Backbone:
């Protein structure tokens, strides 16, 4: 990540800016940490300036930093010599909570400030029909947040932010500052009457359900952020999955709820003017195809792919998508043929976008374990290669997403982290330290 140099301003403003940059660099470095000379080189500061920021008295970041010898597994010396000391963030400084609403359920996780959580112990999940009962789902999520935190002795002030993923287009409304921004659900893609919860503010609704908790005033004061689940799947793959280190990603999410997409350009999510950028499933390519989508009413990509797979968007599906995948992995010839036919079609309609937008990664997310790679990816790759024009054919790679069905939940966590963790740590550095119960964490 390039250093953002600040020119001009008062000495205090420059110092605060350098504190923020140092924290962001350590957050990027993760548990390995960085030495003072490494921090100085990467931030274009002197070692003395780094020392003042790390341990220079009352206005330093000493309350949130540790300095200790590099861990053996992360230190690679060219010759023998003492293991250097590295600067790291202290453990158990704070947490972020992710909530993912899917078409069939609710997932809640509590993670550390590096985005790590243990799916076995740090999550709550339940099935839920959110289209019929969004408020019930949000009320469950609020209770799950409180249960996860209480089990670890974590209080509301130890939580930097809550991120919410929701399976609908989200219009991010602008405000005078980030804390005033809100999301609004949009039901524009639905034929006839809108969804029962269209055009509500899911952030305000979740805040009200948090307010009903014990000590609800504090829980409802936590910063809340919302985005579409596929956008957050793309964010998670960018931060911690198959898109790590890449800048231009098209993440395609396929599940029983439909086909959706998340776009990353120059390392940032792209949402479009009204929040529907990436709605890949409802793009119409074959105007005259006989299949029609129950959502948009057209012969869209989603309708045709689902027909080829043997599952329908409206009514009871012939088979759920994960059942078809399992059958194919058990050598069911019909399921194998259906997946390969759908994958070939997906590659054919994807090719124009690969040429137009010049992605370096196209990632397929959904209920596809690593064992399904040979069923899904080669037909897509072959069709895209056959139909992609010009130099773009050398630039893209099509892969399975690394986070599978957990991408949206991980993305909700990263939404909260990206928006608030530097601010949270700066505030934490200026207040008395308090030990809070830790987590046994594992990267998802």
Residues:
């Amino acid at each position: 990540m390039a250093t953002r140099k600040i020119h001009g301003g008062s000495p205090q403003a420059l110092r605060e800016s350098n504190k923020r940059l140092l924290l962001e660099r350590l957050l990027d470095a993760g548990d390995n940490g960085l030495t003072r000379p490494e921090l100085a080189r990467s931030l274009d500061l002197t070692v003395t300036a780094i020392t003042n920021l790390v341990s220079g008295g009352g206005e330093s970041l000493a309350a949130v930093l540790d300095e200790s010898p590099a861990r053996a597994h992360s230190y690679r010396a060219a010759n023998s010599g003492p293991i250097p000391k590295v600067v790291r963030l202290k453990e158990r400084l704070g947490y972020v909570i992710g909530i993912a609403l899917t078409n069939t359920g609710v997932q809640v996780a509590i993670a550390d400030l590096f985005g790590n959580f243990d799916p076995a112990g740090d999550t709550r999940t339940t099935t839920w029909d959110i289209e019929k009962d969004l408020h019930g789902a949000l009320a469950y999520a609020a209770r799950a947040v409180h249960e996860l935190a209480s089990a670890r002795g974590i209080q509301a002030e130890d939580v930097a932010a809550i991120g919410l993923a929701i399976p609908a287009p989200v219009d991010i409304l602008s405000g005078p500052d980030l804390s005033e921004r809100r999301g609004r659900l949009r039901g524009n893609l639905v034929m006839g009457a809108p969804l029962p919860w269209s055009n509500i503010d899911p952030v305000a609704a979740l805040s009200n359900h948090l307010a009903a908790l014990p000590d609800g005033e504090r829980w409802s004061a936590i910063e809340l952020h919302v985005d579409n689940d596929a956008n957050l799947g793309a964010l998670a793959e960018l931060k911690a999955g198959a898109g790590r280190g890449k800048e231009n990603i098209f993440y395609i999410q396929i599940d029983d709820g439909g086909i959706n997409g998340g776009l990353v350009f120059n390392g940032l999510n792209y949402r479009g003017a009204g929040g529907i950028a990436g709605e890949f499933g409802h793009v119409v390519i074959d105007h005259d195809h006989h299949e029609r989508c129950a959502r948009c009413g057209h012969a869209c990509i989603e309708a045709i792919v689902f027909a080829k797979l043997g599952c329908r968007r409206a009514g009871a599906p012939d088979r759920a998508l994960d059942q078809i995948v399992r059958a194919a992995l058990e050598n069911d010839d019909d399921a194998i043929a259906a997946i390969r036919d759908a994958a070939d079609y997906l590659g054919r309609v994807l090719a124009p976008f690969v040429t137009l937008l010049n992605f370096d990664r196209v990632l397929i997310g959904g209920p596809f374990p690593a064992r399904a790679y040979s069923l899904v990816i080669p037909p897509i790759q072959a069709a895209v290669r056959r139909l992609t024009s010009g130099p773009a054919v050398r630039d893209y790679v099509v892969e399975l997403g690394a986070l599978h069905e957990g991408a949206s939940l991980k993305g909700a966590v990263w939404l909260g982290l990206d928006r608030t963790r530097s601010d949270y740590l700066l505030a934490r550095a200026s207040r008395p330290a308090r030990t809070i119960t830790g987590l046994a964490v594992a990267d998802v």
User: Anything to note?
Assistant: Residues 23 and 254 are 36 Å apart (CA to CA).
